[in-house]
Amino acid sequence: MDLELMVDDDTSFMDLMASQEDDEEEEHGSCYTQEPSGSLNSEASMEEYLDFDFELEEEDTRTVVETDPTSPMSLTNDGELDMDSDMEPPEFEEGEEDDGPESDTEEPPEAIGHIERMVLNFLTQLANKGLSAPSESGSDDSMSEGEEAVSATTKRKEPRPQIEVLLADRRKLGQDGELGTRSIKYPRRVAGGSARPLAQLFNVLNISHEALVTGVPTTKRDVYYKDVSLFKSQGTVDRLVDDLAATWELKRSDLNIRAASKGLVCGAGLSIELFTGETLTGKDTDGINIPVGEDIESFGIDEEVNWILVVEKEAVFQTLCRLGVADHPSMPGRGIIITGKGYPDVATRHLVKSLADALPKRIPIAALVDCDPYGLDILSVYRYGSVSMQHENDTLAARRIKWLGLRTSELSELGIDWDNLLPISKADEKKILAMLAKPNIPKKWKRELSRSLHLRRKAEIEIISSTSEYPL
């Protein structure tokens, strides 16, 4: 069904934006909440674990001077400079200083050091704990042969010492707001084998280390397909990559592992300059892929751009593009339309955040989502950030974005027939109750959710086209 936008003489896009109440007065921080969770019962804290240091044996501090074997200056057997040599010490011109060898190499990425320390810590634990054989209790050399026979039935092996790797757990927040921790231990009793989690972790570490050393980025999808039988699911890779970044307080891009972009943008008023020198120019009647943030050098925005619209669904996005809404005469100037195809990826959120920071306040940024709890949840990800990426929310959450619709309270005003509404499912009901329990969601959002729960109905964006009298 084609989507048609209602535009009449008395109502405009800007009027719709101005009519929406400002949610800022009802907000008190980000909209997600987490149950407090204590740290794992481990002798070493996360900070101590990451700052793990090793005691090295005292090394010989004598300086080794490399010389030309044909040179008269040489080293004695004791490693001391032979002062009987005819070679004169080097002379420096006035004002010249011996600064030592110059280094043209750049500082290696911070993540390389974190990866190598984590691996070294694991190997040290393996050497200290993993190679020691489990001891047996109940044996005594002084026992007689008969006593040994009796005690043989009571012998029990002590458990082998565990090797433990600590990671941040982005889904757990302590009472102080700090991230919780989770551990990967070996050995342990599990049905699928206790070595698999460690193998998955070190596979990701190895790929990230290679990507950082070579300077060639990779994607989480590529990591998964390099060993599908090991990871079992894409979610395993996603969680490990993001947990590693959170553990070291880095961005995912600092590991040189990216998420493949899925978002689209439409509108000739936007151009994107890439570090490769390529320029991506938007189109008014077709969408282009949103590049990942690490590839973007700068944005170019036409002065005629007067509005930004973020839509939940790709189908709606494609319809708006086909109808030329980004530069339609009925709209207040040029516009830019963006979709994350449902829950947005990092690249889409980065674009929306960048536009929100760069554009003047007079240019509205609006979101059009389904009239159901998942639509509002998607809006909250754009506006407040997500729990899973909370360590990057400062650079991804666009607080300026406004809720344009679709709202339960507007259905009757739009002339939408009750029979065209969809009944809410058990999953919808559960999602509504979960969102109502969040203390920081705006009250206006909660009223809409409560109304939907009371009516037991929801609506999708496409339903607007059934009442529009003015097709674009």
Q: Give the CA-based shape.
A: globular
The CATH first-level class of the domain at 13-22 and 261-466 comes to Alpha Beta
N to C succession of SSEs: HHHEHEEEHEHHHEEEEEEEHEHEHEEHHE
CATH architecture of the domain at 13-22 and 261-466: 3-Layer(aba) Sandwich
Region (Disordered): 1-109, 130-161
Domain Spo11/DNA topoisomerase VI subunit A N-terminal: 197-257
Pfam family, one: TOP6A-Spo11_Toprim
Main location: nucleus
Molecular structure report:
- The protein is an alpha/beta fold and 472 residues long.
- Among the domains are: 13-22 and 261-466, Dna Topoisomerase Vi A Subunit, Chain: A, domain 2 (3-Layer(aba) Sandwich), CATH 3.40.1360.10; 160-257, no CATH class.
- It has 13 helices and 17 strands.
- It has helices at 13-19, 46-50, 110-130, 145-151, 196-214, 220-226, 228-231, 234-247, 314-322, 346-358, 373-384, 426-436, 443-455, and strands spanning 136-137, 156-157, 163-173, 179-186, 218-219, 257-258, 264-266, 270-274, 279-281, 288-289, 296-301, 305-311, 334-339, 365-368, 402-405, 422-423, 457-458.
- The strands form six sheets. Strands 10-7-13-12-14-15 form a six-stranded mixed beta sheet. The chain has a three-stranded antiparallel beta sheet with strand order 9-8-11, with no helix packed on it.
- Helix 3 (110-130) packs antiparallel against helix 5 (196-214), helix 6 (220-226) packs across helix 8 and helix 12 (426-436) runs antiparallel to helix 13.
- The longest helix is centred in the N-terminal third of the chain and has 21 residues, at 110-130.
- The radius of gyration is 31 Å and the shape is globular.
- The model is unreliable at 1-10, 28-87 and 89-103 (pLDDT under 50).
- The active site is at residue 225.
- Its cofactor is Mg(2+).
- Residues 308-468 form the Topoisomerase 6 subunit A/Spo11 TOPRIM domain.
- Residues 31-44 have a biased composition (Polar residues).
